[in-house]
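User: Can you predict the 3D structure for this chain?
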Amino acid sequence: TKSGFVKSRHLDDKAGVAVLYSALLKLKEQKINPEYDTYYFISNNEEVGHGARAGYPEDTAEFLAVDMGAVGKGQTSKEDNVAICIKDSSGPYSYELTMRLKDIAIKNNINYAMDIFPHYGSDASAAISAGLNAKHALIGPGIDASHAMERTHIKGIEESARLLYHYIAGD
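Assistant: Here is the predicted structure, written as structure tokens:
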């Protein structure tokens, strides 16, 4: 919309791909080569607990899922920020990685919210339940009305991309 809102079905997947692509473009533009091997996986089965269960490199040390932050009553996520998930229905995310993401957001003036999603699962939690032994975390733009006509804001997508960029760049 003219006010910056984006409305569509399946925005968790669509906005997530936009976040991934935006961060990649900036890394290329800035000529930054990540210190660590970085892999992008795109799935559409996280809602049923499959997603990243299908595979990940054996030497994965950190797994950062880019999905969505649930907006609504009792949530701190908003459409115009990046949500950093502390815990979802599978349990807590890696404290060390989650706090590092928070520190990156603070250091780079990124609009963020720490949140808990009790009725939610991500590719990161699916990978952990499949046996991945790695630090895991979850970020994404705030999205209202999950699994309906969803709504987010371009600023939430941008803030999520900025956080992902700075994370990969090692800031």
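Residues 66 and 94 are 15 Å apart (CA to CA). The two ends are 33 Å apart (CA to CA).
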